[in-house]
Amino acid sequence: MKSLSLAASSVRIDKWLWAARFFKTRSLATNAVELGRVLQNEQRVKPAHAVKIGDQLEIQHGEQTSIVIVLGLSEIRGPAPVAQALYQETGESIAKRQQRAENRRMQVEPSIHIQSRPTKKQRRQLNHINFD
User: Which stretches does the entry tag as region Disordered (predicted)?
Assistant: First the structure.
């Protein structure tokens, strides 16, 4: 079994991202690396590029960007606690994530002022305004 392999000095970046549970499948991890959404030590890399302990990875997943330091290597996907032991998120990344969450919480929902769907008459008036 190859969980936290100390003997291996490097692992493919797409395998590591999948094993560390940043992506659900290895093909999604490969695609993200190819599209430049994963940077290793601030450099674009290919999916077969090797990850070593101590490398810094910047992973963009949707709106969220995580900056992590590689602490362990694994080629297989294990339980979540084992996957979380493979990396450590930087303090800057944690602070940015919390700030984004706070900003989302403070934003006013645009649909809160809409009480119901427009009536047929109101919809006709809206359509008339939009096409003139």
Answer: 95-132
